[in-house]
Design goal:
The structure is a single chain. With 250 residues, the protein is α+β, with helices and mostly antiparallel strands. It is built from 8 helices and 11 strands. It has a 7-stranded mixed β-sheet with strand order 6-7-8-9-10-5-11, sandwiched between helices. Strand 7 and strand 8 form a beta hairpin. Belongs to the L/F-transferase family.
Length: 250
């Protein structure tokens, strides 16, 4: 049985998560609250929340775990062409933390194949906004002609980044934001991005599964490292496309 956590109860060991033969592989615990302090504690232990409106807060730690290593990010020829265009065209910008709440709302409203509704409720937005205010959550945003057209958000602890959700209102805008994030993380020796769940889209970009044991070991080794800086712009994309896409430094 999945344990119910009271306000002061610690998370159980991730090894107690439901197995692959259960109806909810990776489900670890449930609670009534989504306190920011519990949320940070969850990430520090390789656990994340995911639930639907009207459900209790459900906490997960699946085995295996989907990850993306920045050094293994796949830049297809078409994406490389797009990134070079973004670097050359002054209409395109990458902004960091311009409006974190707006990015979360856009992710909540993004259509998902095979899904109805969203888990990114007002309660969830409020909790992650608290993490954003204390410097533990960030948004990376793709802008074109003065409009936010794509982006993503996630949690950053030490040299570990936990990706949460992406959106795009124009083709490839979320990939542009992800590419900028990857390039920034490479520069600061961040070796792994948590992607939580296996999807074909992430696999096409270089994501793959690793054993939960290895994932947890990496989290423990990185979350207490000094914070990396969170100020960058689209020029980081030049790291992914070579000299053909370079732009002059400011």
């Amino acid at each position: 049985m999945v344990p119910w956590l009271g306000p002061e109860d610690p998370f159980p060991s991730v090894e107690r998560s439901l197995g692959m033969n259960s109806g909810a592989p990776g489900l670890l615990a449930a609670s009534a609250d989504l306190l920011p302090s519990r949320l940070v504690d969850a990430y520090r232990h390789g656990i994340f929340p995911w639930y639907s409106d009207g459900q209790p807060v459900l906490w997960w730690s699946p085995d295996p775990r989907m990850i993306l290593r920045p050094d293994e990010f796949k830049v297809s020829p078409s994406l490389k062409k797009t990134l070079r265009r973004v670097l050359r065209d002054d209409a395109w910008e990458i902004r960091v933390d311009d409006d974190f709440a707006a990015v979360m709302r856009a992710c909540a409203n993004a259509p998902r194949r095979g899904q109805r509704g969203t888990w990114i409720t007002t309660e969830v937005i409020d909790a992650y906004l608290t993490l954003h205010r204390i410097g533990d959550a960030h948004s990376i945003e793709a802008w074109c002609d003065g409009a936010r057209v794509g982006g993503l958000y996630g949690v950053s602890l030490g040299t570990m980044f936990f990706g949460e959700s992406m959106f795009a209102s124009v083709t490839d805008a979320s990939k542009i934001a992800l590419a900028a994030l990857v390039a920034h993380l490479r520069r600061h020796c961040v070796a792994l991005i948590d992607c939580q769940q296996n999807t074909a889209h992430l696999a096409s970009l270089g994501g793959h599964e690793i054993a939960r044991k290895a994932f947890i070991a990496h989290v423990r080794a990185t979350v207490d490292a000094p914070r990396i800086p969170w100020r960058f712009d689209k020029r980081v994309l030049a790291d992914l496309v070579g000299s053909g896409g370079a732009v002059p430094a400011a």
